[in-house]
Amino acid sequence: MIKKILIANRGEIAVRVIRACKELGITSAAIYSEADKTSLHTALADESYLIGPAQSSESYLNKNKILKLAKEIKADAIHPGYGYFSENADFIEAVEKAGLIFIGPSANSVKMMGSKTAARQLMKKNNVPIVPGTTEPVDSAEDALKISKEIGFPVLLKASAGGGGKGMRKVSTEKDLKDSLEATKREALKSFANDAVYIEKFIENPKHIEVQVIADKHGNYAHLFERECSIQRRHQKIIEEAPSSFVDEKTREKITTAGINAAKACNYYNAGTIEFLMDKNKDFYFLEMNTRLQVEHPVTELISGIDLVKEQISIANGNKLSFKQSDLSINGHALESRVYAEDPENNFLPATGNLNEFDLPAGPGIRIDAGFTRGSDISMYYDPLIAKLVTWADDRKNAIARMNRALKEFRISGVINNISFLLEVFENKKFIKGNFDINFIEKEKLVEKFAKGETLKDLDLENAASIFAVLLKSQSPNIQKPETLNNHQNKWTGLQYE
User: Fold this and answer.
1) Residue 213, C-beta contacts closer than 8 angstroms, at least 6 positions apart
2) Is-contact 480 490, C-beta < 8 A?
3) CATH class for the region spanning 132-201
4) DSSP reduced 3-state for 198
5) 3-state secondary structure of 126
6) Which DSSP symbol is given to 196?
7) How far apart are CA 183 and CA 171, in angstroms?
8) Integer Cα distance of 340 and 287 in angstroms
9) Which residues are known catalytic residues?
10) What pLDDT, in 10s, does the model give residues 393-451?
11) Which candidate, 72, 119, 239, 248, has a CA 20 to 30 Å from the CA of 488?
């Protein structure tokens, strides 16, 4: 039985795993870099160990240091969280070679799904729909042209080892193909040390729908329904929800069955996610498999009642799934907002600073997954995610209303953030109606509005400031407008100026 878990990660996912450990009576051991000395995960864990300097390569991505520490502190298992080593087959093999348990899938499953082309081949063999295109890397511009003509422009060039929106280019015309192929190969080599590129038919205005799967080592598989992840900026998700308002029962049955088939195809166990693109006709196509826990897992937990992290640990212990598929049903609706330290008015550049104010929303149906507290530093070394704000209600309309209320309660100062941008999305009429796809932010020109300072949030505040000043002046000519309202040039952070 697992008695001590070393968490090879940081921030809110490390906190999430620590909390699961505490509820299970398992000792949690955290690692932290010199930049994370005051982070929440460091304080919450039963044991905390300095692993190295701020640079990830010398701390959170130093395999030898992590494995040596795990042996020294007599940990039984390692939980990788997501990112870092979570989908690294070499790390999984090293963990198991060291006599430790890796809380996640097998190295073989990770290898099978790590190559996009190999994964497409596997899905095709197992009756999981794939986007029309190649299942092998393209060797030359001549081959690329021949294939593109067969499936029809526009096409999408994608790095075989890619992810996170990198190594991906849309090509609309024949004349752009050669240069785009060369550029994609260069980017793929730089980002993934692998310049293999394949071609897919470009699906116009799709939705991004993913299926949460989970399996044990005894051959039991289940899905926890689907998530809607179409609200993206630069191919990065910023808002997720479960279930999808676009997916009807018939489509849900088809896509979740495809998700289970995909997991079975690579003999998968533990928690994983199958990502699909879905067109306007509700036809869907395999995109990739994430062989790990997802950032957006809380929305699935809230509608299913299943604690995915506890289930991960139980599976790693050799236990069977604690539930059957027939035990599950969708309960209500959940939404997640990723609150980032970034500047919406300056092309969303990452921001740094100290959270001198960090007051979290509360009340019914509110969940906060955060790796920071008041006074924490947001550094330049890591992902700019500050917190995940999750709301649950009996239906989507009420979940959106609750999210609006919660975002307006969120108080952050000291660090520029994207709360005002999130509010723009949740108050958008098309979003409220469910009328959106992965190009929603571009179509609604939300980024441009922030760059020009034309957002409703700023305009409303400016008008409110002017009205407030007039009222004050009418009551007493000696009262001056407060500085926080007077200086409209100050940066908007959440619900206040600073």
Assistant:
1) 221, 222, 223, 224, 259, 260, 262, 263, 268, 271, 272, 273, 274
2) no
3) alpha beta
4) strand
5) coil
6) -
7) 12
8) 26
9) 292
10) 999 999 999 999 999 999 999 999 999 999 999 999 999 999 999 999 999 999 888 87
11) 239
Evaluate whether 216 touches 320 at the Cβ level (below 8 Å).
yes
Assigned token pair, 58: 């010398």
CATH code of the domain occupying 4-103: 3.40.50.20
Q: Which two tokens stand for residue 217?
A: 């080592």
Q: Where are the alpha helices (DSSP H) in 132-248?
A: 141-151, 177-192
Token reading at 476? 């007493």
Q: What residue spans define the domains of the chain?
A: 4-103, 132-201, 207-448, 458-497
CA distance 303 to 338: 18
Which residue has tokens 């008041």? 374
Strands (E), 125-172: 155-159, 168-171
- pLDDT tens-digit profile of 299-351? 999 999 999 999 999 999 999 999 999 999 999 999 999 999 999 988 899 99
Q: Determine the Cα angle at 179 with ends 174 and 182, to 5°.
A: 125
Phi then psi for 457, rounded to 5 degrees?
A: -60, -50
- Distance, CA of 98 to CA of 70 (rounded, Å): 9
Helix pair 177-192, 141-151: axis angle to 10 deg:
110
- Tell me the C-alpha distance between 71 and 450, whole Å: 50
Fold (CATH) for 207-448: D-amino Acid Aminotransferase; Chain A, domain 1 (3.30.470)
**How many other C-beta atoms lie within 10 A of the C-beta of residue 172?**
12
